[in-house]
């Protein structure tokens, strides 16, 4: 049970296209046109995924003329990584703990 890990954020990042977008944005700030070129996704599909990432707080936008640029918010991933690190520490600390069957 992953109660200490942000399950909503995990759901958002579990989608393959959204994970690809996040990976691309980790390297550089990109506009929708760049992301369409890089992913091969349709613009409307990509925009829907970017909306989900934006609403989850994973990316932020920067208007630039008629384009919108997207930037990854690394602190969100740091928080998630910290939650997993805590979960791993708990597992290590309880490695010898085993509940008896009735």
Describe this entry's structure for a reader.
With 102 residues, the protein is an alpha+beta fold. It is built from five helices and three strands, in the order ααβααββα. It has helices at residues 7-14, 16-27, 32-39, 43-55, 74-93; strands spanning 30-31, 59-64, 67-72. A three-stranded antiparallel beta sheet has the order 1-3-2. β2 and β3 (67-72) form a beta hairpin. The chain is elongated.
Radius of gyration using CA atoms only: 18 Å
The low-confidence runs, each spanning 5 or more residues with pLDDT under 50, are none
- Helical segment count: 5
Q: Biggest sheet, in brief?
A: 3 strands, antiparallel
Write a brief structural summary:
By secondary structure, the protein is α+β, with helices and mostly antiparallel strands.
Helix-strand layout with pairing:
Blueprint: H1 7-14, H2 16-27, E1 30-31, H3 32-39, H4 43-55, E2 59-64, E3 67-72, H5 74-93
List keywords for this structure.
3 strands, 14% strand, 102 residues, three-stranded antiparallel beta sheet, 60% helix, alpha+beta
């Amino acid at each position: 049970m992953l109660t200490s890990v942000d399950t909503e954020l995990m759901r958002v990042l579990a989608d393959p296209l959204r994970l690809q977008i996040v990976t691309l944005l980790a390297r550089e700030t990109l506009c929708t046109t760049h992301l369409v070129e890089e992913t091969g996704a349709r613009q409307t599909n990509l925009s829907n995924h970017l909306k989900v990432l934006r609403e989850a707080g994973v990316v932020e936008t920067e208007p630039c003329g008629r384009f919108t640029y997207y930037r990854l918010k690394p602190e969100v991933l740091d928080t998630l990584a910290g939650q997993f690190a805590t979960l791993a520490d708990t597992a290590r600390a309880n490695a010898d703990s085993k509940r008896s069957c009735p």
